[in-house]
Amino acid sequence: MSTTATCHKPENLVVGAVLTTLSFFCVALVGALGKAAGQLTSTAVVVLFQNLICFVVIIPVAIRGGPASLRSHKIGLHVLRAATGTACWYALFVAITMMPLTNAVLLTFSAPLWMPGIAWLVSRQKAAMATWVGATIGFVGVILVLQPQHHEFNIGTPLALAGALLLGVALMSVRWLGASEPMPRILFYYFLFSTVMVLPLALLEWRPLEPRTWIYLIGVGIAQLFSQVFIVLAYRYASSVKLSPFIYTTIVFTALIDWAISHRSPTFFVALGIAFVIVGGLVAIRGKTDASLAAIES
User: Fold this and answer.
1) pTM
2) Alpha-carbon distances of 139 from 1, 11, 277, rounded to whole Å
3) pLDDT for position 9
4) End-to-end CA separation in angstroms for the chain
5) How far from 121 is each of 44, 124, 126, 175, 189, CA to CA, in Å?
6) Average of pLDDT values for 75-96?
7) What is the b/e burial string over 19-34, where b = at least 16 CB atoms within 10 angstroms of the residue's CB?
8) Cα(16)–Cα(14) distance, rounded to whole angstroms?
9) pLDDT tens digits along 19-77
């Protein structure tokens, strides 16, 4: 996910909210199409198409300013973002072949709940009390979804949770990059490094693809592309702080898509867990927003 923009229009929160919601709807489509494609080909091939299509499209945008527009003194941070982002999607795509789509996406997109802990480990940055309260509420939701007392161990669960930790690091690295790097450069290096990282494994696991598989794979890449386009446009109309709560619409959209395709409605505990994760995330984000404003005012 991207968290900054290089060009701002007068604030229009409604337009920003609509564009952000469209972005996360596309993210939900990536998960659903990835699940369908993963049943017909390897996870590495799915991740390759997800990034390669976007990389091809971003090249002309990123090089419009010539070679200088690609010059960066933060290549290591770009590599970190690509490695964690790619690993996150890889873990999620594997997890959704082993457990219900909604559960896997919920666990992975609980990433904002893990970010206070990651920030403290990396930089000893202290979070506001509301952030920790929100994280606690969210983790109760995660436990409700997992219902460990009613299920046998499923390897998809730790994979999805690992994806959440990786996504948390990826989101933080985008924030660090956004302080000095323009958005086209961030996207260029993300899709470049992600493609390079997964290409060898995809080639090793390549098998002839059916027409239906090609459709799913191209759909994954296009949905990923539009998720990036919409979020970059959204941040031209409103700040990432105001729009960040909309990340949880991904969970809602995924549940609706899962219900429409597989006719599998969430159980009571899964629905309750979704509510807890969303409320916890909103409380945590609110606490982070208040802390940022307090720092500015002081």
Assistant:
1) 0.80
2) 22, 33, 7
3) 60
4) 30
5) 30, 6, 10, 16, 26
6) 93
7) bbbbbbbbbbbbbbbb
8) 5
9) 888 988 999 999 999 999 999 999 999 999 999 999 999 999 998 888 888 988 899 99
User: Which has the higher per-residue pLDDT, 292 or 240?
Assistant: 240
Domain boundaries, the chain: 13-297
For residue 189, pLDDT beyond 80: yes
More confident residue, 98 or 238: 98
What separation in angstroms does the CA of 125 have from each of 119, 189, 261, 278?
6, 27, 43, 24
Residues 175/3, Cβ–Cβ less than 8 Å: yes
- pLDDT(114) > 90: no
* Encoded tokens for 23: 């972005």
CA separation (Å) from 160 to 66, 109, 204? 40, 9, 24
